[in-house]
Amino acid sequence: MRAFTIESEKSDFQYLRLANEIESKILGGEYAAGDRLPSLRKLHKQLNLSISTVYQAYIELEKRGFTEARIKSGFYVKPLLRNVLPSPKFEKQKDAIPKKVSINPVASAIVEAMSDPKILQLGAAAPAPELLPLKQLARTVKSVSLKNLESIMATYEHPAGNIELRRQIAKRTLGFSEKIAPDEILTTNGCIEAVNLCLRAVAKSGDTIAVESPTYHGFLQLIEDLGMYALELPTDVTTGIDLNYLEEALNRNTVKACLFNPNFHNPLGYNMPEENKEKLAALLNRKEIPVIEDDLCGDLYFGEKRPATLKSFDKKGLILYCSSFSKTLAPGLRIGWALPGKYLTAVKRLKLNTSVASSRLNQCVIAEFLKSGAHDRHLRKMRNALKNQMSNMSLAIARHFPQGTKITSPNGGLLLWLQLDETVDSLKLYQEARKHSISILPGIVCSTSDKYKNCIRVSCGYPWNERLEKGIVTLGRIVAECRGIYA
Amino acid sequence: MRAFTIESEKSDFQYLRLANEIESKILGGEYAAGDRLPSLRKLHKQLNLSISTVYQAYIELEKRGFTEARIKSGFYVKPLLRNVLPSPKFEKQKDAIPKKVSINPVASAIVEAMSDPKILQLGAAAPAPELLPLKQLARTVKSVSLKNLESIMATYEHPAGNIELRRQIAKRTLGFSEKIAPDEILTTNGCIEAVNLCLRAVAKSGDTIAVESPTYHGFLQLIEDLGMYALELPTDVTTGIDLNYLEEALNRNTVKACLFNPNFHNPLGYNMPEENKEKLAALLNRKEIPVIEDDLCGDLYFGEKRPATLKSFDKKGLILYCSSFSKTLAPGLRIGWALPGKYLTAVKRLKLNTSVASSRLNQCVIAEFLKSGAHDRHLRKMRNALKNQMSNMSLAIARHFPQGTKITSPNGGLLLWLQLDETVDSLKLYQEARKHSISILPGIVCSTSDKYKNCIRVSCGYPWNERLEKGIVTLGRIVAECRGIYA
Lengths: 487, 487
Prior knowledge:
Two copies of one chain form a homodimer.
Chain A: H1 14-27, H2 40-47, H3 51-63, E1 67-70, E2 74-77, H4 81-84, E3 99-100, H5 104-113, E4 120-121, H6 134-143, H7 146-154, H8 163-172, E5 186-188, H9 190-202, E6 208-213, H10 217-225, E7 229-236, E8 240-241, H11 243-252, E9 257-260, H12 274-286, E10 291-294, E11 319-324, E12 336-339, H13 344-355, H14 360-371, H15 374-400, E13 406-407, E14 415-419, H16 426-435, E15 438-439, E16 441-442, E17 455-459, H17 466-482
Parallel strand pairs in A: 4-15, 6-7, 6-9, 9-10, 10-11
Antiparallel strand pairs in A: 1-2, 3-7, 5-12, 7-8, 11-12, 13-14, 14-17, 16-17
Helix pairs in contact in A: 1-3, 2-3, 6-14, 8-14, 9-13, 15-17, 16-17
């Protein structure tokens, strides 16, 4: 069963096809953890491929986190991520009701501490600088002529955003729906400003917003700031919100809008199945309820193709799509965007009243980079790196955390969600970890309830190294110590 | 009485002292419009100053808008701005009540059209690019090393803002109160984001905010967006809000916060007298009512010294000071700041939740420029230019507008406020002017009432030229045509 069937036709991507085939054999269980892959020479003869093509495929698999090279011995299969630890499981809640949110004091303190470079940052959902194309971006800044720089700074940018950047974004979002025109796009100061403006365009103080449970703490903070109520929907760790439950909840409650993150959900990491997205969009279109879709990590998929967006199933312009370049290009540039559908005018007006326009300089730099064509190449590399980092992090957690730890196995993004022994109080754990200069995100800030009291979110944004390994060893020890004592 | 008393001591600034002395003679009425100033040779002998020093003083006066050179004839005194046309006058309103605001549809359309370069922009309160130090700023961008650019873009900036920029701002605000530390400052995406965050920190949907009447339309738009109510206070064209009226209004109404613009008020242009500021701060401190102070144009004074801020009289940390670099350095960079007093934590949290942080690149560029020491030199030049532009604009309006036109005579900033014949509907006037590719701001968007229906705001951001002169001729003709017909 281990025979390879690669056709011997000439192609630059032979190595990729070979890597894909071996990957599916590993995923299918034909190769187990610890198995040695065939030697380069053997596959070279068997498949009539050059030694260098086979070698490239093996390097690709290593980048993807499936194999490791051992000196003078060959390539070995690493333990599979998805089989390492069981998935988190939560009891289904009954009859969720809209709740006032008050997580800001805790969440703000945690988020503010995230910028301290002395702390091992397992809490912040940010990619490591070495994963970003900063050299090219810096060169792009340098290449702008003095004269252009002057005119870039001289006047306010158009409130809807730099037209060249909107053209580039429109090009890249061709697959979303039949046609996205630059005029349908609005650029913002990062994804969170996009979400903020969209939320304010569709709901006001006192209104109820349906969210996934758990959800991104930033969403709850926004809802709190805007005096709105959160209705938390039961959410499966691998498929997302329960559609039947949602329909019932919409009948029971007056929900003004939904705020969802269907692709590589923060914090759960799942990618909602395409048929669920289609049903979800249809249901909310039918009920005329606007949905704000956060697709911040949609480009960071580990599989074969980019997951579909909820927006692509929108027939009525009721889905307000939000994303940004903060996770894929440069957090420091603060550029995101929205496709607000039929709420475009309202969102544009709010943008104008809130910050006039986003910085033209930063928008021009990103537009130039996108035009250069380097973005897809960069994203391919980044996805491989993240996949590998997440695999290493999962394995380290499996090695060093107490028995009973449950963990998600996302197919994209950069976040892991851990369910610890139910006696662990993650806020105490957070405080203990901080004493050891380690930051994590306690589950308590991802909900209005204390349902995720024993959960934490861990970021895999950084390439694996000794410091990270040591950090996970320490964290595992603290988790063990926290068991029971705060129960 | 026309003798000059300059002492003959050596100084680089002799020319400035001479210019100041002549200026006060003009202001005091010793020289009238049309008078010829003494010849260079005469003053050179009389004051024992070099010819070039006297010449410099005359050029300085020309820059300030007091004189004009006539070829082969000498320097002549121009008509004095403040005597050109009478000041606008409004009936005092009685018992103002909080009102819901709904100016957004009109105001947004007007503001959005302001970015069209084909239109003569008399509506937008923006300085001409040639008044800004864009060359130095562009060179500052260019001078950042590749390595620094990389690290600037790699991570989120601190939510409170770039520390070097906050240090520079703290240095420049030494005179505000006893000590401003960088930690008390928060940088934002322009002044309007600062005002927005401060307003949200002190009030919520349904609350009443006291504002000047007329006020900056952007404030009303914010109040509308946030579901708040506006209480418009009677405001004198030269001294600002009526303090007795304010005290009564505060007794009659539950005012949650005030939103004032005491220096070079938008749109009235007045600079509130220092004793009024002191009384105002004391009154609101006593009543424990927070005040958001917009000081956007405080650096653009035409007189001898920068006007005091309301903040400098704040004893309780209840004044939330807001400003920006958009009017003085570069609108395109979108960097402003706030000194939120005792609301610092709340404002910081809102900033984090709204846009994480402002762009580090743009903040670094401004910090470098401020460090270079070029800012004060630049501001001196810019103030002279604006004073001259405003003088030219006022004179042109006096020449070309129908009799009965009233006009403000601001001592700083870049805005004029015109009260036209009471039969003129400024919104119709706006529409007629747009047909001739001229943009103005109709007074209707500066109030929840139609009290300023026959007023318009005109910006003096651009150096005087033939296109502007022609535009004013056209506008004057349209004003004349609009009289009566819409009554």
